[in-house]
Amino acid sequence: MSINTKRLRASVYLASVLVMSAATSGCSIFSQTEKDLTEGWSANKIYTTAREAANAGDYERAIGLYESLEARYPLGRFAQQAQLETAYAYYKFDEPDSALDAIDRFLRMNPSSEDADYALYLRGLVNFNRGHSIVDKLFPRSIADLDTVRQKESFQDFSHLLTRHPSSKYAPDAQERIKHLRNSLAQSELNVAQYYMTRGAWLAAFNRAEYAVKHYQGSPAIADALEIKVKAAHNLGKPDLAADNLRVLELNFPERAAALKTQLR
How many other C-beta atoms are found inside a 10 Å radius of the C-beta of residue 156? Predict the structure, then answer.
């Protein structure tokens, strides 16, 4: 290896070390500056400043301040409120996983808190709005096309709120969201059932339709689900099962049942 090549490699290595040192030094200075920002502050001052940042839409700064508050005054009267407001800031900052973690930690640490209803409501909101990215805002799509796992979690969160805190001020909105989610989830199950029907997978179609009927009563999709159950049972060679479901369809949707009878003759 030539002397010039060795010198070149040494220069590159030295430059790399200097860049890494500068970067590390920069990070340390930044961290120290952020740390020193609240040094000597009272819990009230940190909390007030964090609230001001959140109200101004600076959720990233608010999160840092709330977390500093919890670290400096973990047993103070502001710490519990900071936990919830950290969760809300994460939610607004579009960090749903961090928001859910913060909410779950709050509920574990404060199971009897008077704000438990809000925590459940916020958990439902986080799951309800997951997937509502900028793309979804530019190109709106049905919530039935979004992640049904998150929809089901949101449905459960709002249901827990109504069960545990029926008189909560958040209950009316939760009820409306549950209605919306019920219809969406039922339609999602129905879409899958209809797909199975086109493929001739009668048992799979029957099971998905049955799930919709069992879990999402009151949804407009129930009539279609019952009809799929009748057709699937008929194609499976289960006349008794088809007749039972046809009777249910007749009791609830007589016109649909009459039309279906004509088709099955």
Answer: 16
Q: Which of 8-22, 44-58, 219-233 has the lowest mean pLDDT?
A: 8-22
C-alpha–C-alpha distance, residues 168 and 159, integer Å: 12
Angle subtended at Cα 264 by Cα 260 and Cα 265, rounded to the nearest 5 degrees: 120
- pLDDT in the model for residue 139: 44
- CB–CB of 197/185 below 8 Å? no
| pLDDT tens by residue, 18-73 | 434 444 443 333 334 445 678 889 999 999 999 999 999 999 999 999 999 998 88
Q: What's the Cα-to-Cα distance from 113 to each of 82, 86, 109, 138, 233, rounded to whole Å?
A: 13, 16, 9, 39, 50
Alpha helices in the chain (DSSP H): 3-37, 43-55, 59-72, 77-92, 96-109, 116-128, 134-138, 148-164, 171-199, 202-215, 222-235, 239-252, 254-264
In the predicted structure, residue 183 carries a pLDDT above the cut 90: yes
Burial (CB count <10 Å: 0-12, 13-18, 19+), residue 238: middle
pTM as predicted: 0.73
For residues 223 and 257, what is the distance between their CA atoms, to the nearest angstrom?
9
What is the arithmetic mean of pLDDT over 90-113? 94
Q: What DSSP string describes 204-235?
A: HHHHHHHHHHHH-TT-TTHHHHHHHHHHHHHH
Give the torsion sign (CA, 180, 184, 187, 189). Answer: negative
How many degrees, rounded to 5, is the angle at CA 101 between CA 62 and CA 140?
80
Amino acid present at 190: L
